[in-house]
Amino acid sequence: GGGDEDTPRNERPAHMVHLSAYFINRYPVTNQEYLDFVRGTGHRAPIHWERGTYPTGTGQHPVVNVSWQDARDYAAWTGARLPTEAEWEKAARGTDERHYPWGNRFVDGERCNGNNSVGTTTPANEYPDGRSPYGVWDMCGNVCEWCADYYDEDFYKISPGSDPRGPDEGQERVVRGGSFGETRSALRVTHRAGISEVSSRENTGFRIVMDV
Questions:
Q1: What angle do CA 11, 16, 21 make, to 5 degrees?
Q2: How many domains does the chain fold into?
Q3: pTM of the predicted model over 0.85
C-alpha cells in the first residue's frame, strides 16, 4: 500500500508482506484467448460481442465486459487462478515504492493507455516502455483487472504478513490497475477499488497466475 498521510485511507497502512513464488501472465487475457474459452466450453460471450465473436481488429486487446465469475471460470479452465491483490501489486511495482510500473514520472500516452489519452482499449502489447520490473505488461491503464480477493477498504489494518488473501467474505471484489478512461491517481500501482463480482464493465478485464 501507500505510505504517506496523503495516501487514500484504503491504501493505508503501508505494510510489508511475503509472497510464495508464483507465475503471472505477461499480458491480460485477450479477446482471442477468451474466444477460445467461449468456443471450447459454451460459456457466455461478453455482451458487446456480435455473432459470438469480438469486434473486428481487437483480437489482441484485453477482453472486457467480463464479471469476476467469468474471469474465475476462465482461469479454472486454463488450470490457473486469479491473482491475489498482493500478488498483483508485487508484479506491478516490484519491491520498491514506485507509483507506476516503470517509475514515478507520468506522461500521458507515453507508457500506458490511461487518463483518456486514447479513450478505448488498445492491444495488450502496445506499451513496452510501461512494463513492470518483472517484465509484466499493461499493469497500468488499458483495463482494470479483477483480483481474487473480496474488497475491504480497511483490510490493510489486519492483513497477515505472509500470502494475504483478503477477507473471508464481502460484497465486492478487488479491481486494480486503472483503465483507459481513469485519471493518474487511479493508475497508481497502489490504487484499490471494489466492484460487485457479478458486474461486467467495458473497462474491466483480468490476467491469470499459477502457483510454482
A1: 110
A2: 1
A3: yes
